[in-house]
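Continuing the series of single-chain predictions for the mutant panel. This is the parent chain; the variants come on the following pages.
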Amino acid sequence: MIGTFLLYIGSDKMSSKIGIKIVGLIILSNIFLVGAVLSIPTDSLMFLPALILIGAVSLVLGTLLGSHIERNFAKIITSVKELSKFDNNTNNKYELDALQRDDLASYIKQFIKNFKNIIEKVNQAGEMIFYSSEELSNSIEASHLSIASISYSISKIADGMEGNAAAVQETTASIEEVSSSAESVAQSSHDVVEDSINAEKFAEKGSEAIQQVIKSIDEVAKSSVDVANTISQLAVSSSKVGEILNIITGISSQTNLLALNAAIEAARAGEHGSGFAVVADEIRSLAEQSTKSAREISELVKGIEIRTSQVVETVGVQEKRINSTVEKAQLIDISIKDILKSIRNVVIKINAIASASKEQVLAIDQVTKSIDSISRVTDVSAKNAYDISDSIKVQVTTLDEISYAIKEIINLSKSLDVKIGNFNN
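Parent structure:
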């Protein structure tokens, strides 16, 4: 608009019109003066020569003044015309220097000076805008790539979070199964502890029973030894009885022999020896009975000795068996004590396992709660990640719009730089 206006007022037609208007104003003023003269009464015509002279002088002065003003306006318009063409040559400077005494020229010179300063500042600002816009455009492109990479990464993270959430759910299910198994182990451990305690009690009772058996076997062994000793003594006594029976048998034999001799002597004595013969027969009969009884007793003693020997042998065998049984019972007692010790150790370990299982169940419950919290946080994080991805997409769109606007600014800066270059050349 300013350039068009300056071109308009700087045209030759415009300068001619201004000169014509000034001359026209002078002529018009003279016409009004003539009219005023014609309207003057006749009795006042003595002032007519003076008025005519004044009109002639004003006409001449108006013509001269119009020419001078026209020439000055022509120079000013020429400078303004060149200024409107952005032609910064030195001719205008000299033409304006010729009009230093004219206020309008001074104003125009100051305007041109200020306009040059403004153009120079605009040029500097345009260059700064151009380079800053290019840097900003590069930064925005880099930011666009970074944000696109971040958006892609966040999308991957969100997808990964969804996968993590699914994995967490599967882990939670597995942990619940492990927790159920741990509870079963704890319950089974508790049952095993109770069974072990019962087995310990049974083992203790069995050990006590074995001790009683060993004690009873020891007593039987002692009784067997006593019986064996008694039987041995009986065998000794039987041997002595046999010896005594042998003596009795010998005495009976001698008595029988004496009775026989007495009977022979009684037979020799005749009637005087008949009474003695009867006594001798009786003694012989008693001797024979004693011999017979001694033999029977001897046979019985021999049978007793044989049976006693058999009993002694049997008692010896039983004693060996009893001793072997005692040894075996003692070994069984030792084994039972070892079993009892092992059962106690098993009970201690199972109690430890039960306690550990309970602690494991509590820990698994805590882990399950933590995983539930992680699952919730993961779901929220995934949602937030998608929201961030959407926001970044909006930012990318905004950056694209800003990048387009900056490219427009760069193009305008280039156009402005061309215009200013035309002015400075």
